[in-house]
Design a protein that fits this description.
mainly alpha, about 0% strand
């Protein structure tokens, strides 16, 4: 058996001490530091990806709403952009994306201050509930129908009582029923097929939660 030479032992001790000092003062990253940096880089990548996804969804919602504005607003409406309210089943980034998209759409085309404020909040609540129900797609399509029927129906009813609103007076339940019917078309006839089509796309386009 060969014994370590004294010079080698001293040299190794110096290297160990220098490495420890450099690690302690940040000049030489340890394996733990490298692992933390990789984890932070991954988290930043996820945040950037989610922000991009939310922005795209917001832009799509606002654009579709205004391209089809002639039946996206008013008592009898089918807001085609509401088909996107099924996207929270694929990515949580859709929740803020839908809120911002509806906010932009209603700020430009809303019939009243109530529509500009309560409409986006209703969309936010419905999107969150749909995300919570993401494992049950047919049931997850229900919150945008119910929440918007209640909230937007009330907004339209209030607007109909104001002079010069251009909306003919009608009972609250009539407005809620009209909005709910439009939402059923948008969410079930358009949204669910869109969800299933996107889900079948090759690759994990939305980086779905497992």
């Amino acid at each position: 058996m060969e014994c370590n030479k004294p010079g080698n032992t001293v040299w190794e001790a110096w290297i160990a001490t220098l490495t420890l000092a450099m690690t302690r003062f940040g000049r030489l990253p340890s394996q733990t530091d490298i692992g933390h940096r990789k984890e932070m880089n991954a988290m930043n990548h996820i945040k950037t990806r989610d922000l991009t996804t939310a922005a795209i969804i917001a832009a799509l919602y606002a654009t579709i709403t205004h391209l089809l504005a002639f039946f996206s607003f008013g008592p009898i409406q089918v807001r085609v952009a509401e088909a996107l309210t099924l996207l929270p089943l694929l990515t949580p980034a859709a929740v803020p994306g839908l809120f911002v998209g509806c906010l932009i759409a209603n700020l430009v085309g809303g019939i009243s201050i109530f529509d500009k404020v309560l409409g986006p909040l209703a969309t936010l609540l419905a999107a969150f509930l749909s995300w919570k129900l993401k494992r049950m797609p047919p049931l997850a399509a229900l919150p945008p129908v119910v929440v918007n029927a209640i909230v937007v129906g009330a907004v339209l009813y209030i607007a109909s009582t104001q002079p010069g609103s251009g909306i003919d007076p009608a009972p609250y339940l009539a407005f809620a029923g009209w909005v709910g019917t439009g939402q059923v078309i948008a969410c079930y006839a358009l949204g669910l097929p869109l969800y299933y089509a996107l889900k079948r796309l090759p690759g994990d386009v939305f980086h779905r939660e497992k």
